[in-house]
Amino acid sequence: MAEQINEILVAQGKITPDQDKQVQLYAKQNNISIAEAVLRLGFANEEQVTIALSKHFAIPYASKENGILVPEREQNLQEIISEKFARDNMVVPLFMEDDSLAVALLDPTNLFLIENLRMMSGKQIQPFIATKSQLLSVIDSFYANKNLLEEVLNEAINAPETASAEGSDEDVEVTGVLDLDRMNPNSSQYVKQVNAILRQAIAERSSDIHLELFDERVSLRFRIDGSLYERTAPAKEAVNAIISRIKILSKLDIAEKRLPQDGSFTIRYQNRSIEVRVSVCPAVFGEKLVLRILDKGSGEMNIDKLGFEPDQKKAFLAAANLPHGLIFLTGPTGSGKSTTLSAVLTTIRTSELNFMTLEDPVEYKLAGISQVQVKPAIGLTFAAGLRSFLRQDPDVILVGEVRDNETAEACLKAALTGHLVFSTLHTNDALGAVPRLIDMGMEPFLLASSLALVAAQRLVRILCPYCKVPHIPDPVTMDRIIKEGHLNPRDSSSWTFFKSVGCPKCFGTGFSGRRAIFEVYRTTEEMRNIIYKSQDLVALRKAANASGALNLRATGWHKVIRGLTTVDEILSVTMSDE
Predict the structure, then answer these.
(1) Rounded to whole angstroms, what are the CA distances from 465 to 165, 262, 469, 470, 564?
(2) Are strands 451-463 and 325-330 parallel, antiparallel or unpaired?
(3) Which of 102, 189, 224, 549 is 20 to 30 A removed from 519 (C-alpha atoms)?
(4) How do 206-213 and 218-224 pair as beta strands?
(5) Across the 578 residues of the chain, what is the mean pLDDT of every consecutive 10-residue run?
(6) Do the beta carbons of residue 225 and residue 148 sit within 8 Å?
(7) What is the per-residue DSSP string for 354-386?
């Protein structure tokens, strides 16, 4: 590029000249590109950088959201641009029209690549620009072999197993990382089946894999967007060998079948590193295996895309920019609390403040933030780590979870001594955090003075944009939506309702991805008085609702009327009295 990205961003007002100096220094010190430095420092996100380049070079911006970054599947584009070429060069074929081929690129000014594409296709190239994360995601889905698992399992049926479950040493590199992109044709059938299950699960955006043996059958299920779906299972006689293979990868004891075991291993797949956490538990008919897939490349760290309503985002960031106080985010395990808090920290991060986190485990690696892994076995608990933090001159502290009285008191002390403290709790709703913290030993008058904000979140499935169909709720449901969502029926002409169907692009689920719904309550003076005097949860709810803030159910209805999710989905994850 004739001009550096930082110069373009300064010219468009995306970053300041002072930030530009920091970017150049950071890039030089860490031996990274200017673009990477801008992203790591949090001065602009990936989408903002790409849109700025799009405007500067007058090249159209392609994304999933604007409907352009969607390859035409009926034109056999994968025969023109192979998966390897697409992945190596960060390019996605979009569509052909007459004598031109439209492609999305990470760097549309790469004339050498464009000339190669012209020679490969025999057509003129129409370039679009897209972000790296979206390009990778589209490559994954466009080139995915969705029948891989069935093909491998059918092959296993026709080829009796003779090899060891451990497979060839070539399947695992000396680094201990399993490379799914290097499928060894000489591997045993059990190794191939494990690799196929992992690849299929990742292609379908699964968060967990469940493999269990029953008396008459084997069950293989993938958890996709929070729900479990049955998949073609391996043969009954292969299950023990598959579990042994996973144990070997996780460095577990393959001879131990009486006690639960936990472990982990890392896989490399399609230019990204993915951690797999393993849990093996003895059951009546044999061991049950559960794999948790932690694909950090698929995490959404942009606070604008988490699911906050505008007023909720404004309230959360206002509290997050306070000099001191307590901020609690509540919700069940797996509801995205870590993702939300990581996104908030990334948004408010500045080199002028000292940010520190204490987590178990560290879910996301955040640039410019000191992160500590809790290790209870050696005495590094949340409470002990937090006491140590206070000697590290922190400004903003994230404590992964308040689990006991000692940690609760340490958080309160930190907030009262001039620090901003973020943490999480497991409660049914946001305001339920108040009695829980008081039960943990926090004095009501100290909690009332230090609590800045409480919030709760749940994850709801988002309708597949390719197969959702219009739907009109019945009158009773419509009245419920209006009442609980605090909506004006006069605006109903602008509402859109859909229901799920299912298609190949969403693997028949009818949904594609999840988004959070929130309730966010800034602590008002009336709420402080209630916390201090009576701790009456009913009165606290009335005071919080009087501020006009939406609860979880109301936020959900706002997603429904915009056609993002379904009525049934909101009813399944929220309660009417929230």
Answers:
(1) 41, 38, 9, 11, 9
(2) parallel
(3) 224
(4) antiparallel
(5) 69 83 82 79 83 87 86 84 86 90 88 90 92 85 65 64 48 58 68 88 89 91 89 89 93 93 86 86 94 72 85 95 96 90 91 91 83 88 88 92 90 93 93 93 93 96 90 92 92 90 82 92 94 89 89 95 93 77
(6) no
(7) -EEEEESS--S--TT-EEEE-BGGGTB-HHHHH
